[in-house]
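Hey all, quick one. A colleague (J.T.) asked me to put the calcium ion job into the tracker so the inputs and the structure tokens live in one place instead of scattered across chat threads. No bug as far as I know, just bookkeeping. Sequence used:
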Amino acid sequence: MTTSIILDCDPGHDDMMAILLAAAHPNIDLLGITTVSGNGSLDKVTYNAQRICALAGLTIPIGKGANDPLAGKASAAPTIHGASALDGAPLPEPTYDLSELNAVELIAKLVAESPVPVTLVPTGPMTNIAQFLMAHPELHSKIEHIAFMGGSVTRGNWTPYAEFNIWADPEAADVVLRSGIRTTMVGLNVSHMALATPEVLDRLLALDTDLARTVVDLLKFFAHTYDTVFGMPDPPLHDPIPVAAVIDPAVMTTALLPVSIELNGDLTRGATVVDVHGITGRDANVHVALDLDVDYFWNLIVDSIRDLG
Ligand code: RIB
Ligand code: CA
């Protein structure tokens, strides 16, 4: 069964792998890519989305999105993804222009024109998604699922309690989680199971294609910065996981739980408060990822690079 998706991202090394997986797998029809500042400035992550599509020979429409969060100013994460937000290997120049539509306009057009309901897959701060939901209530019925990478059942990575994507725009995440649309959350508690080990990199190199070699060089850069910043020599490949869950929900185990976003805490703003034991009495609004079939996940990743090579 094919699922039509729009990938909203801030490439970013792991966002790149999400784009490649979505583009390669027959269970997914990647209608469009939209960009949001996060791992780098809006211009950098948008340029990277174009270069990734050039690298893989893709011609998917790309809509440039939000530079600033709903509240406050943009903040980038150059320490993890490098000055370009996708350091580690030379990449080709874009082979086609950006859409004339911005992210929200492109999402609205693609959803309105789709003959089937659409799944939104945000893998960066959710500013574009929130702005789309607020601007187009008439299209909510055509969004069947929002599967996002962000938050955590446990602790954060950008602050002690907040994961970067949610921390960068907590108001946007709050809009998404209150939308009433079926939502799946892939947080750090699961994404830290998807470690790009030397064995994974060797499997990719064994494909013996230029694309595989470029991907490995990029992931080695990602590994170096993750080791330097977090003491994790094998970097977690966060963003392809919600894509994998759209391809086959069996790739991970989830539970329907109440999830709220902390908007006010001095030390906890941006935290995803996951009510695992139902203590708050709040409605269970999010399908929260709790476990990952790691071997299945990496097989999907390696197969996607093989098929695009
Ligand atoms: O915290 C991990 C998330 O932040 C990933 O989406 C990564 O690309 C960065 O955006
Ligand atoms: Ca990302």
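Adding what we noticed when we looked at it: Strands lie at 3-9, 28-35, 62-64, 118-122, 143-149, 183-186, 252-257, 259-261, 272-274, 286-292. Residues 9-10, 12, 14-15, 38-39, 123-124, 239 surround calcium ion (ligand 2) (CB under 6 Å).
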